[in-house]
Amino acid sequence: MEQIKKLLLLSFGFLFVLLGILGAFLPVMPSIPFLVIAAYCFSKSSKKFHDLLLDNPLVGPHIKNYHENNGITWQTKVLLIAMQWGGIIFSSIFFVHGLLGQTLMILIAMAATVYLLSLKTLKEKA
After folding, report:
1. DSSP E strands, 1-126
2. pTM above 0.70?
3. What are phi and psi of 71, to 5 degrees?
4. Distance CA 86, CA 72 (A)
5. Do residues 14 and 6 touch, judged by C-beta distance below 8 A?
6. Has residue 49 got a pLDDT over 90?
């Protein structure tokens, strides 16, 4: 039974890594929350993949900050919000032409912005 649990958590870990990668390219889908969930799944199933994710220079520090302190730096907040809104505007102009779709994308982006701004702001390390 323990092996099945570990296999399921490992599988979910990879699924959430995939969703996190997709989130880096899709404007209404966040990356870091999916990678935080993946890190949790790997922490319960595979030390190797957990360490690999946390040691990644691109996303590892963000996951560690979020996981350990439940916060992100102001610079990261600004970058994430700017990228999110840039992607929303780009998608609205070139891909989503219906009012319903554009409205939904804007509402999701607004909710994500509120969430990001509500997170604890960590000080930059000097």
Report:
1. 71-73, 120-122
2. no
3. -160, 170
4. 20
5. no
6. yes
Task: Give the model's confidence band at 125: pLDDT under 50 very low, under 70 low, under 90 confident, else very high.
Answer: low
Give the 3-state secondary structure of residue 72. strand
C-alpha–C-alpha distance, residues 22 and 117, integer Å:
22
Helix pair angle (32-45, 2-25), 10° resolution? 160
How many CB atoms are located within 10 Å of the residue 116 CB?
17
Contact 114, 84 (CB under 8 A): no
Question: How crowded is the C-beta side of 28, counted as CA atoms within 13 Å?
Answer: 15
Count of beta carbons in the 10 Å neighbourhood of residue 58: 7
Which two three-digit tokens encode residue 91? Answer: 């998608």
Distance in angstroms (rounded) separating the CA atoms of residues 34 and 56:
15
Tokens 């040691």 belong to residue: 55
Strands 71-73 and 120-122: parallel
CA-based torsion, 20, 22, 24, 27: positive or negative: negative
- Mean predicted confidence (pLDDT) in 105-115: 88
What's the token pair of residue 29?
């889908």
